[in-house]
Amino acid sequence: MGVATCCDILIAILLPPLGVCFKTGCCSMEFIICILLTILGYIPGIVYAIYVIAIQDRSELGGELHRPINDA
Predict the structure, then answer these.
(1) What is the spatial distance between Cα 6 and Cα 33, in angstroms, rounded to a whole number?
(2) What percent of the chain is modeled with pLDDT above 70?
């Protein structure tokens, strides 16, 4: 988790759709979901934005989190 991710999470806490927009783009499904959740309640928008930012960084590891336990 680098400095850029920490800044993205800080932005996601202040304005959840903006943090998701910086990470995935403004025409993505994640952005639209985040806007809807933020309209319905500020806290669900924050939780979803942090979830999107954290999962996006983990998927960039090259699938290391999704490899099987037994490589047989």
Answers:
(1) 22
(2) 75
**Residues 26, 37: contact at Cβ < 8 Å?**
no
Structure tokens at 70: 């037994």
Kind and range of the H or E run holding 67: none
pLDDT digit string, tens, across residues 26-59: 888 999 999 999 999 999 999 999 999 888 655 5
What's the CA gap between 23 and 44, in Å, rounded? 18
- CA torsion through residues 63, 9, 1, 28, sign: positive
Average model confidence (pLDDT) across the chain: 81
Neighbours of 35 (CB within 10 A): 16
- Residue 6 tokens, joined: 């920490």
Q: How far apart are CA 8 and CA 22, in angstroms?
A: 8
Instruction: Name the pTM for this structure.
Output: 0.73
